[in-house]
Hints:
Strand content: 15-25%
CATH architecture: Alpha-Beta Barrel
Protein name: FMN-linked alkanal monooxygenase
Radius of gyration: 19 Å
Low-confidence stretches: 1-5, 336-341
Keywords: Monooxygenase, Oxidoreductase
Distance between the termini: 18 Å
Largest sheet: 8 strands, parallel, barrel
Oligomer: single chain
InterPro entries: Bact_Lucif_Oxidored, CmoO-like, Luciferase-like_dom, Luciferase-like_sf
CATH topology: TIM Barrel
GO molecular function: monooxygenase activity; oxidoreductase activity, acting on paired donors, with incorporation or reduction of molecular oxygen
CATH superfamily: Luciferase-like domain
CATH class: Alpha Beta
GO cellular component, one term: cytosol
Order of helices and strands: EEHEHEHEHHEHEHEHHHEHEHE
Number of helices: 12
Number of domains: 1
Structural class: alpha/beta
Amino acid sequence: MGDFYTERMITVPLSALEVAMVQTGARAADTLRDTAEFARRLDDLGYLRLWYAEHHHSPAIGAFPPVVLTAHAAALTSSIRLGSGGVLAPNHAPIMLAEQFGTLSALHAGRIDLGIGRGPGTFDDSTARALRRGAGPTTDDEYRDDVSSTLRFLVDEVALGPLPEPWLLSSSTAGAALAAELGLPIAFAHHIRPDNTLAALSHYRERFSPSRWCARPRVLICVETVCAETDEEAARLAGPMDVVKAGLLKGRGDIPFPTPGEAAAHSFTAEEARVLATFRAHQAHGSPETVAKHLTDLADLTGADELMLVTPVYALADRLRSYELVKQHVVEEPHADGRRS
């Protein structure tokens, strides 16, 4: 490594979240093809795990089922852990989730994760109702039953061999409370609700009950990470997602994913600019040195056992370069098997 960068030691593994952004002017099939190259490259780079998010009816994000992407990537890679980040329990029958991920775990022993979340995965009410066969939003009790039933089916009905590693996704104290009650490791969406992170993790650790799945509190933090050669280039690459987020602030989930040039020409309101700047302050955007500082500071602040990086930028090459730069300039402790995390 060159002398220009100051390496920062991080003592937790690094993983990745794939959200499969569909570029303006491209086909969803092109994005789907890119997911294979992305998985292969992250496997080569030594990232610990790669998860796939469930989304529906969005022009900016591909509607690719996590279980299908997990199966495809597992066949293309050799060591990286793969799974859902997450499948959304109210959209699926618990026994089907158990059968799908139990089968994957039997085929790829020790490499499959089952991350479970609650949201609808869409901003379109008719799509949400279709996913739930006409039912409305799930209640707290229904969600708890869905998660508990999925775990029970994994053990009692499927049991094909090594079980997938279950995680509960959360962006709130309520989700943290459920993870603590069920004794599950928690994957916290700091990239969505950074204002909730510390309170939710405190709640989780204070109330955690050990289970067959997890003996002690275990925390994964997902953080938006855009790394480029300079802070200015990282800001340019992050521009398209800023446009999508500005639409979400208005309750619109129908904003296409623009090019960096289109994003640079976009006009944000003063309030949008303020909210976006506040959000960015909690994420990891910038040069390798800047990103290394943000990631190490976040790990120290939260006491995370693992960081998961999500990098919603326009081109696959720029996205892969971001993950490469992080691996080059954030020095990590090796895993027990000798691999870098």
